[in-house]
Amino acid sequence: MYESMMKVISGYGLISGFAVIGVTMWLSYWLSDKLTRGRLHGSAIAIFLGLVLSYVGGVMTGGQKGLVDIPLLSGIGLLGGAMLRDFAIVATAFGVNIEELKRAGVSGVVSLFFGIGTSFVAGVGVAMAFGYTDAVSLTTIGAGAVTYIVGPVTGAAIGASSEVMALSIAAGLVKAILVMVATPFVAPMIGLNNPRTAVIFGGLMGTSSGVAGGLAATDPKLVPYGCLTAAFYTALGCLLGPSLLFFMMRGLVG
Amino acid sequence: MIIYGVAFLALCTLAGLFIGELLGKLLGVPANVGGVGIAMLLLIFVGGYLHKRGLMGDKSEQGVEFWSAIYIPIVVAMAAQQNVLGALSGGPMAILAGVAAVVLGFAMVPVLDRLGQKKPAAAADKSLNPAQR
To answer: Which one of A2, A81, B30, B89 is separated from B2 by 20 to 30 angstroms, measured CA to CA?
Structure first.
């Protein structure tokens, strides 16, 4: 009987994913209602639960994909994988108000450059404080603070050591996870409650997964505005990282 | 039919990602250049056009709305496969770099919001001057 059950659960992975995530959502909304009287949004709890579970999964299996490395739960990987995630993010754009988007358009583009700049400076500053002095390592860690994709792309292009690359990926991961968890708490303080600031927020933070999760937990109506700018962030980072930013760092530290 | 909406969404997504790939090749960037963003813009503008012309029925729209509604569960599934262990085992430097980037980013949101709002006011002032002459 046990074997038959396992066969069904792992053989119908995507369906199991829907079931597991559905139950998680129900539990999260129930917790939100009972423990916080709805003050902390159910989806924020669900995302946090997801992250905790992925930590548990990582500890249990030593793998890199959190909960998905547990064979029985691999279906969640299909549901939360890049394909369905991007498909659903595009679908959120259906409710977008074109006027709001036009009004926020220019600030969105400006925020992209600002966002990559500030993240890069923050990463380089911390790397310097920890004793890194060469332009290659500083640029790679700074690029990692931009996103965990920009970090290794930049590092590979300018020849960083694998240790520095691992650090830059970790910095980017911390950023993505922190944005998911912290956004609903910080949102009221920074005026993140309208399409305009959501466009700016997406451009500043950029990390697609972080912005997608953070805005979903804050207000699902803001998701398309933030994700739209965030979609361009990683590519711009990959473009600037090994070129302009690296040349600037080389000019600064020699 | 609901499938028309789903197919429309699929065509927008594929077209956007395709343009993003081409842009990446052109710019020499090893990434998809804004494919998801371009797909969203396609959906907004082409979808809006079809809606205005009455070419998109209620049922078709439900095909898009379903995926938009299933978005949060998908994000939860995405959260469940982040490399949280990897992020935390990167050591204090990686954690600090990530935290610093996020704190600076949050702090910049209200700053940029204000910056952008001043600009149109200043532009309005400038356009007033020649009119006064």
So the answer is: A81
